[in-house]
Each structure stands twice: as structure tokens, then as C-alpha cells.
Write a structure and sequence with these properties.
Two copies of one chain form a homodimer.
Chain A (H helix, E strand, L loop, with lengths): L26 H16 L9 H5 L13 E2 L6 H20 L5 E5 L6 E4 L4 E5 L2 E5 L3 H23 L3 E2 H6 L2 H4 L2 H15 L8 E2 L5 E4 L2 E4 L2 E4 L8 E2 L7 E5 L4 E5 L2 H9 L2 H4 L2 E5 L6 H14 L3 E4 L4 H12 L8 H4 L4 E5 L4 H4 L8 E2 L2 H12 L1 H4 L2 H13 L1 E2 L12 H12 L5
Parallel strand pairs in A: 6-7, 13-14, 13-15, 15-16
Antiparallel strand pairs in A: 1-4, 2-5, 3-4, 8-11, 8-14, 9-10, 9-12, 17-18
Helix pairs in contact in A: 3-4, 4-7, 14-16
Family (chains A, B): Belongs to the TOP6A family.
Organism (chains A, B): Tetraparma gracilis
Pfam families (chains A, B): TOP6A-Spo11_Toprim (PF21180), TP6A_N (PF04406)
Chain lengths: 427, 427
């Protein structure tokens, strides 16, 4: 084989020396503010503000469910999930041998089974179950799909590989017919096994980026996100391949827009204000949400959100915070309930004297969405959000984060963000 | 400041030793095929097959333009572009002082000015120019926009930073009104200065990923794409920050779909078959196209394309190969004319016995697009493409790359691609 080994095109240059960039001059004020927030968050008396999760299931929290009535999935190891699949198969065989046909008990993910648990401050599933019976004509097909998905999951877990939902669909198009069928059953199988959907090694796609003060191992490769150039590192769809997370960051900056991420990455904002910068480029995918949740859990540092000042920006922020109802069985791994809204808030438009020409008129669609959001319990319950959203609705003006460019292209990293952080101006 | 310096949360683990993964057993056959192709490509007698560029301007090539009648931009250094902007300003001042108002001569990017140069095998712009006169009422606004954009470009070049098109728009919303106005003028300014649009330091956004056997410096950070875990490295929007590219890859695998990239990255396909794997996740952005063009130019290795077998996949491949008409003044930096179509080709459906249920019926829209493409000179000129597309239109079947999952999730990396490469089955 030696004759066929490719020869290097050119000698690799020696790795450049690590840059030593000092913190910003006002970093001590910023760090004091951020550390105060962190200390406050660590106290049992800390109030996060009204929960967004509570609102999702309709305002007032239900009476807390007894622990044995809560259906909540756990992170499980690959062999444990495999064993679960084998148990399902054995159980099917037993039922068939006993002449009972076969039936799956599937945890119900219906709205009526979603409860807000105040102590956990999350939506949890109750233990209602529905049955899926192969000998029932109306359920036979779905039962077959469920069984086939279990078999496929068992195969990929055995190989230790990950696949996409689309790959899964394509292994048996004839049976699944439509991808939504196999996608839906995936969530069923996860709740049945009591594991997260990611534990099934089936992923959607990745679109998140990370740059800044965090290091980790990814599938054994050592990744240092302070040395990822100006483009940063792609957040992998397989979060379980990330281990050994270390960081000297004091906060996480969660950015809605790609363009803002690019600005902060090029300016290497994280050198001057020790942070980790993350974006999912708009609507967040599961991998980015999980990555954020893990960083928050492992590092215990505050998360600051930077979103457009419009109803859509608010919606995206709410997905990071409360997640989607459909994935409520795994809310623990997907949501970061305590994100501080740093900017751009509707009140910023006047406070930062945003020029008239950078304020955009809200469209009819925007106004409609804004009005609907004002009715939503999850906004209603949060006085500061109501205040901000009311300002937006009264002025009928919205603004993108990039509108700050009117003060200079680097204004956001040299003035806006440092001032916000120094003043602790988050809600 | 020492009191405020963040303290590491945890000791960084020692970097793991470099994995030594041997090449695949059949790698010698594959490398022989690929090297033969590379050697053939290096010969002056090498025929790339009918040019797609020729077709873009309508079939037969024009008589070659004399060199002094070709308007082609060059990669220019930051100070050189700054100097150009200063010259424009001086020229304006001179005209105004002389009482002539002021006028810009702008290279025409109209279709009538696009010529196919056979020796270059690219579309080039002729030296037709239009004038933009500030004292002409109908041209005053556009002239003002042009001047303002020049001023802003001069500013960002002076700071040595990059901005997005959206940022540029937001610096003067009142003047630009619509982003398409400032975007369009950017191309004008680039052609006027004779530099690429990227030289203006204005970028769109990044969405490309790269993994595999390539190393480079990105803004001084040493990046090794064989050690980027399973997610890979984000291709930065600022390609000029990439320097010192080295590689021991023998070919580049250009992948349409994110999901296929993820499969190959997790399988670390590049260890067994020495290659670089790139995706732009669908329709390619400028940064990914530039990155591919640079890799091809600097490394001189063949590019293999892996696309869906449908009219849309063909369209995406054509963007990598021929680019967009609008950017024809910079076709040299954006197009990779010689991409080999590896798969999935319509003829693969039968040759690889793709199960019936994985073949999708073409929609009316697909059939219409396919019919239109068969009329396009750029397809017509290429007999092998006509053959493939005719097969598609006759069977009225399409297939996504993921359809290969029906043979097993890793079939693409263990069987399909190795066989294709061993047999030199590309067109």
C-alpha cells in the first residue's frame, strides 16, 4: 500500500503561536455585572421571572403531578437503548405466541397529557398511554411502522452510526409512504423506550455555528473554538460525540442572525469579553438547542440573547426557551428557559437613538403576529416582555440587529454590546 | 485586570494522539483511476467536453475578443482597492471643479456585453461601458448611490474589516431604500475598480462546510480539516483570510446535500479514500464556490460531484460549473468548469438496481424543468448529459442521493462510492 499512499502537496507550516489578546478596558465592569447575575442565579431564592413553559399549557400551572405520574425521558446509553428495542421484540413475540396478536403501549403526546410542573419549571408529559394494536385494522399500519422503526434503530445502534430522518424514511419508502409518518413514529419510539430522540441516533440536520472560549473533544478530535478562524466551528448534529467541554467564558452570547455572528467572530469579540458565541442562523435546529442546553448546564454561565426587534425575533427566542410542544417529552435536553433578552429590544430604538430610516414599518402580517403574541399567556405573564411588545405595537416599528450598522459597522461590538453588558441591561 | 481575568473551569485534557487510519483495501485501484484522470487533465490535448459556458451566451462561441476589448477583474490587494476609491474621488472633484458635473463610466454587465472566450473557456465581459451622470435627472440617484458605496467601501477597507451586504444597506437606508439597489451597485463598483466583489470586503453569508484532507490558516489560526470531528469546519465568508492551503488529498468530493455530507463525515470517508469533502447544503453561496475554485486551482486535483438525480440537482451542479450570468465579470474566481458528474445519475437507477419504492415520480414541475433543460444549449452540447437527462425524462423517475440508504445506511460510503471510483464511472 505504501506505493499508493498520497504524498503531501506541500510541507505543513508550523502552527502559529497562540494569540494573547488582552481583555477590553471595561471588561472588569462587565464581568462584575455578569458574575453578579451568575451568583443571583445560583441562589435558591432566584426568580427567573414568569415561566414561559407555564404559559404554553395555558396560563395557571396545574396541580403538580405525583412523580410516578410523570412520563419523562432520560439520556440513555447506546447499549441500554438497544436492550430496550430487544425487549420490545421479545414482548411482541410473547404476545403473538400467546395468541393475543400484539399491542404497543405508546405514551400519549396529546395536549391533554401535557402538564406544567412548577418545581421543574418545564412542561412534562403525564403517563397517559394509548395502545397501538396490530389486529385493529385502523391501527395495523401504524403498528407495522412502529415495529419497523424499532428494528432500524436497533440496527444503527448496533453499528454505532448516526443517520438522518430522511435516511430512515428511505430504507422503507413503501411502508412509510410519507416522511412525516416515520418522523412521528420516531418520537413515539423514543418515549416508549424512555430515551431522548437523539439517543436513537437519528438526527435532522445541522446548521449551528460556534466560536469563542470553549474547547471540547468531538469524536476524539480536540476542538478549540478560540482558534477556529473567522468562520467558526459547525455544531455537529451528533451532540453525543461532544465530550470534555472546558471553557473560561463568563457568558454565552446567543445570536439570531448569521450576519451578526460573522461581525462578532471577525472582531473576535470573545477575546475582549470572555464569552462563547452561538448562532443557528434563524429558526434553531435541535442540535443547536441541545448544544446550548449542554453548555449552560455544564458551565453554569448566563445566556444572553441578541435578536431582531420584531415579532419573529421574539418567536425564535421562545423556541430556544420553551421549545416545541411536540418535543415536550424531552424539554429537559432541548430548552434553556433562562435566557436574558439583551437586545435589540423595542425600547432600544429610542434609547440608542436609532435613526428613523433604520426603523422599518411593521407589515400587516407583523402587526397581526404581534397582536396574537400579546394575547399569548407566555408573553402576558412577563410584564417586561409585555412592556417591550407594547412599545413595538404602539410605534408600529421594528428593527433588525443590523440596523446598528448605521452607527458604524463595528458599533455593535465596540459600543452597543459593551454598554449593554456594563449596564446589565437585560430583561 | 488580573483579578477579573476569567479562570478556567476545568483543566484542558491533553490532545488525543493523531489517528492512523489505513487507506481502504481497494484504494490503490481508486487512486490509479483518479491519478489517470488528473494526468489526462494536465495534458494540453485534454478535452473537457462541451463547455457549459459557451452555451450560456447562446450556443456557438463568438469570435474571440482581442485582449484589449475584454473587461476582466483581478484579485487586488486591500491598499490597491483603497487607492482606486481615492482615484474615483479625485476624479469626481476634478470634474466638479472644471464645471462638468460628474460622470462615472460603468462597465456594462448587459447580456449584449457577455462574450464566450474559447481559449479561456469562460464567459467574459466586453469593454462596453455605460455612463452614470449626476446632472442627468434620471441618473442622479444611482450616481449618488454609487458614490456613497465607494465611500463606505473605502471606510471598511481602511479598517480592514468585512461586512455583509445587509450591513452595507443599513448604513444609509434613506438613500438606498431597497437592498437590491446597494447590492447591484456593489457589482458596478467592483467592475469599475477592476477587482472582485470579495476584494471590496462585502460578503453575503456562509453556509458551506468542509471536512477531510486539507489544512490551511484562517486569519492566522491553523485549521486541520481531518481533525474537525464529525461536524467539520464552516467555510468562512471571507475567503481571503484563508492562506497556506496544504493537502494530501487526491480528489475533491462535492456533495449537494447536507445529509450525505454528514454520512461521509461520520464515516470519515476521507481516511480510506484520500479526499476533501465539501457541501454548500443545496444552492451554493459565493463563499463555497470561491473556496472550491481555490482548492481546485491550488491543489490541481479532480472534483467529483454527488447530486440528486433530478432536474434541480443538475441545476445546482451547473451553478458550481458556470456560475450566474450576473457575476460573469468574476467567473474566473467563482466557477469550476470541470466537475465530473459521479452520481446519482439517472442511469444509476437501473445500474444499481435501485428498488422501485425509492424512485420517486417526477412532478409536473420537474417534468417541465427537465424539458426546458433539454432545450438549453448547455445540456444540448453535452451528449452524455443529454443521454442521462433523456433517461430521466423517459422513465419520469427521479431519486435523491439518500435513496441509496435502502441498501443500508452506510452503502454509499462502503459500496456505491468506492465502486464508482474504482470503475472511473464519472462523466
Amino acid at each position: 500500500m505504501s506505493g499508493t499512499a498520497p504524498s503531501p502537496k506541500r510541507q505543513k507550516t508550523a502552527p502559529p503561536k497562540k494569540k494573547q489578546v488582552p481583555l477590553a478596558k471595561d471588561a472588569d465592569i462587565v464581568l462584575k455585572k455578569v458574575r453578579e447575575l451568575k451568583a443571583a442565579m445560583a441562589k435558591p431564592s432566584y426568580k427567573k421571572g414568569p415561566s414561559v413553559a407555564a404559559a404554553l399549557v395555558g396560563g395557571a400551572p396545574d396541580a403538580p403531578l405525583p412523580k410516578d405520574q410523570v412520563m419523562e425521558v432520560k439520556n440513555m446509553s447506546n447499549p441500554d437503548v438497544q436492550e430496550k428495542m430487544e425487549k420490545f421484540a421479545l414482548d411482541i413475540a410473547k404476545q403473538v405466541i400467546e395468541g393475543r396478536g400484539f399491542t404497543f403501549a405508546v405514551p400519549s403526546r396529546a395536549a391533554s397529557n401535557q402538564h406544567y410542573d412548577k418545581s421543574l419549571d418545564r412542561i412534562v408529559l403525564g403517563n397517559n398511554q394509548s395502545s397501538r394494536n396490530f389486529v385493529n385494522v385502523s391501527q395495523a399500519r401504524k403498528t407495522a411502522i412502529t415495529t419497523r422503526v424499532m428494528q432500524l434503530i436497533h440496527t444503527i445502534l448496533g453499528k454505532g452510526i448516526h443517520i438522518t430522518k430522511r435516511d430512515l424514511f428511505y430504507t422503507d419508502v413503501k411502508l412509510f409512504v410519507d416522511q412525516s409518518e416515520s418522523d412521528g413514529v420516531l418520537d413515539d419510539v423514543a418515549t416508549m423506550a424512555g430515551c431522548t430522540r437523539s439517543n436513537l441516533n437519528v438526527v435532522a440536520s445541522d446548521k449551528g455555528l460556534v466560536v469563542g472560549r470553549v474547547q471540547f473533544l468531538e469524536d476524539g478530535d480536540s476542538i478549540d473554538c478560540t482558534r477556529m478562524g473567522v468562520g467558526g466551528k459547525a455544531i455537529p448534529p451528533y451532540i453525543d460525540k461532544i465530550t470534555d467541554i472546558t471553557s473560561d467564558a463568563e457568558f454565552i452570547l446567543l445570536v439570531e442572525k448569521d450576519a451578526v455572528y460573522m461581525r462578532l467572530a471577525e472582531d473576535r469579540f470573545y477575546h475582549r469579553y470572555p464569552c462563547i458565541i452561538i448562532t443557528a442562523k434563524g429558526q434553531p435546529d435541535v442540535a443547536t438547542r441541545m448544544f446550548l442546553t449542554r453548555l449552560k448546564a455544564e458551565l453554569g454561565i448566563p445566556v444572553m440573547g441578541l435578536f431582531d426587534s420584531d415579532p419573529y425575533g421574539l418567536k425564535i427566542m421562545s423556541v430556544y426557551m420553551q421549545g416545541s410542544k411536540n418535543m415536550s417529552y424531552d424539554s429537559a435536553n432541548l430548552t434553556t428557559s433562562d435566557i436574558k433578552w439583551l437586545g435589540i429590544r423595542p425600547s432600544d430604538l429610542d434609547r440608542y437613538d436609532l435613526p428613523e430610516q433604520c426603523r422599518l414599518d411593521m407589515t400587516k402580517e407583523d402587526i397581526k403576529t404581534g397582536e396574537l403574541m400579546l394575547q399569548e399567556p407566555f408573553v402576558k405573564n412577563n410584564p417586561l416582555w409585555v412592556e417591550e411588545l407594547t412599545t413595538m405595537m404602539e410605534t408600529k416599528q421594528k428593527a433588525e440587529i443590523q440596523a446598528l450598522s448605521s452607527f458604524g459597522f463595528q458599533y455593535i461590538s465596540t459600543d452597543y454590546l459593551p454598554r449593554k453588558l456594563r449596564e446589565g441591561d437585560w430583561v
